[in-house]
Write a structure and sequence with these properties.
This protein is of the alpha+beta class. It has helices at residues 8-55, 58-65, 69-83, 115-118, 158-197, 203-217, 238-244, 261-269, 309-347, 351-365, 377-393, 412-432, 486-496, 527-530; strands spanning 87-92, 97-99, 123-129, 132-142, 148-157, 223-227, 233-236, 273-280, 283-294, 297-307, 396-399, 439-447, 450-457, 500-505, 514-519. The strands form three sheets. A five-stranded antiparallel sheet has the order 2-1-5-4-3. A five-stranded antiparallel sheet has the order 7-6-10-9-8, sandwiched between helices. Helix 9 packs antiparallel against helix 10 (351-365).
Length: 531
């Protein structure tokens, strides 16, 4: 069975502790070595200074010159006891001991070379003699006339040096141990921070996530916009930039982005949203938002966007076809009823009544659609369907007297989207409004290839606080949820043709609202336009 590999963060911890320990050991060794050298120099200098003090006694020099061994021994022993030295040795000019802590050594030559001191030089060293290893200071001894009559050698025991060195080692050890503990604590805090920032993932896992991140985010057909817990962008893939037409580098706050109101509200709320339909520029988008958490960590959320523009276009066409079918079905049923009535009058030989009925039918045939004012069959059928819908709502839909469309529509989807949404809103406003009878009037005027549309109703008008934002996605005059998208789609469809839609008159107590649309390139050019 393969041995489990040590986690990366633990490797980092071990490496940091090992490196810190190595640096501290090397530093401690260097410090001890330096301090030991300085300590030896200090003890040698101390021995030399004490030897100078002893040699400065002129009486001692005179005693050596007079060969008064008892006086020399007594003076040397007194100095040794006073200074705490290991030994104080006094010799004559031949290097023969006249004073020594061990009386048996008196009269014997010194164990180390006395020539330098006898020559008038001062000597310091660490040597081993009859009393063991010691730091020594040797100075010439002079009588009252200044003549060198011997030497004074003073030694400090190496045990004192070792004790001082042990004290230094203890200090260095305490400092190194404290530094090591502090370093280990810092390393543990760093590892904890890294673990928190990387969510406990190993480097190879992070690399795999990065590869998957790039492959998934830029390889899918959906837009992905991710925000962190503070509301700043962390991911914005290519598709989301295309759909929202924005440049959102990582770190940009949501409040700084030009987003549709519904998307902005979703990101700021940070709550789950499913299949939210919104309009961004000339596109209809479906958005979903999910919170992202890992354990107790709040990682923000992810907004996914799908382009439903083409599907929305097909839906509009289907709605138009369905309305037209419903209108034709209703007209077919009404026509069949009239034919049955006329057939009955003929069969019963009520010819005068049948003729009158035919005249009434002919007069009523000049209905909303079928007049010479609108020549486009698509608009005729579409408005016929809307007229049937209006009748079901108790609203009368009529064409304005100044309407005139002599050519065909070349952008039926965009035109019916604009006209249909404006008419639908007007029908609802007229139905809810106080004015009776409830009426919606549509004016369609051709200006070359441009179609001008005006829709007014007998409703209560648009509230003043919504007049400037009525075309904004999510804004609606209705209290029920699920509204606020129709006028935004209307504006989108008009602008896709290079046109525009505006609220010309919000209305109020004197009548309903008036919406005006301009749709360039919506009609075929007439012969006069070609000329």
């Amino acid at each position: 069975m393969a041995r489990a590999k040590m986690p990366f963060l633990r490797q980092v911890l071990v490496l940091q502790i090992g490196l810190l320990a190595l640096v501290l050991v090397v530093g401690a060794v260097m410090a001890v070595w330096t301090e030991s050298s300085e300590l030896s120099d200090q003890f040698e200098q101390r021995a030399l200074d004490m030897a100078r003090v002893v040699a400065s006694n002129v009486a001692l020099g005179d005693a050596v010159a007079a060969d008064d061994q008892r006086l020399v021994q007594a003076t040397a022993e007194s100095a040794r006891l006073a200074t705490g030295a290991l030994f104080v040795v006094v010799t004559d000019e031949k290097g023969i001991r006249l004073a020594h802590p061990n009386p048996d050594q008196i009269g014997q030559p010194v164990s180390t070379d006395p020539s330098a001191a006898l020559a008038g030089k001062e000597v310091t060293n660490i040597e081993r003699g009859t009393l063991g290893l010691s730091a020594r200071g040797k100075v010439p001894l002079r009588d009252h006339s200044g003549t060198i009559v011997g030497e004074v050698s003073l030694g400090i025991s190496a045990t004192e040096i070792d004790a001082a060195r042990q004290s230094q080692l203890g200090t260095v050890g305490l400092f190194s141990g404290g530094a090591l503990l502090l370093g280990v604590g810092g390393a543990l805090l760093l590892i904890r921070l890294l673990k928190r920032r990387t969510l406990g993932l190993e480097p190879h896992e992070l690399a795999e996530l990065m590869q998957e991140h790039q492959a998934v985010l830029h390889g899918i057909g959906e837009g992905v916009l991710a925000v962190d817990a503070s509301g700043r962008i962390s991911v914005c893939n290519t598709e989301s930039r295309r759909l929202l037409r924005l440049d959102a580098p990582p770190g940009t706050h949501v409040s700084e982005l030009d987003l549709p109101p519904r998307l902005r509200a979703t990101l700021e709320a940070g709550e789950r949203v499913d299949n939210l339909v919104t309009v961004a520029g000339d596109r209809v988008l479906v958005a979903n938002y999910r919170e992202v958490r890992k354990g107790d960590f709040d990682l923000g959320g992810v907004l996914t966007l799908r382009d439903r523009t083409d599907l929305e276009t097909l839906t509009r066409e289907l709605d138009s076809t369905r309305e037209l079918t419903d209108a034709l079905r209703a007209q077919r049923h009404e026509f069949a009823n009239r034919m049955h009535t006329l057939s009955g009058l003929v069969r019963t030989q009520h010819y005068a009544e049948a003729a009158e009925y035919l005249r009434a039918m002919s007069a009523g045939a000049i209905t909303l659609i079928g007049s010479d004012m609108i020549d486009d069959p698509y608009l005729q059928a579409f408005l016929a369907a809307k007229a049937a819908t209006a009748a079901g709502l108790g609203v009368r839909l009529k064409i304005g007297e100044n309407s005139w469309v002599p050519s065909k529509v070349v952008a039926p989807v965009e035109v019916t989207t604009v006209v249909g949404n404006l008419v639908d809103n007007a029908l609802q406003a007229a139905r809810r409004g106080p004015g009776r009878p409830a009426v919606v009037e549509v004016d369609l005027v051709a200006d070359g290839t441009t179609l001008h549309v005006a829709v007014t109703d007998s409703g209560a008008g648009v509230p003043a606080d919504l007049a400037d934002s009525v075309f904004t996605d999510g804004v609606s005059t209705k209290d029920e949820p699920g509204h606020g998208l129709g006028l935004a789609l209307t504006l989108q469809a008009a602008r896709s043709l290079g046109g525009d839609v505006r609220l010309a008159n919000p209305g109020g107590t004197g009548g309903g609202a008036l919406f005006v649309a301009q749709l360039p390139q919506a009609l075929e050019p007439t012969l006069e336009d070609v000329r």
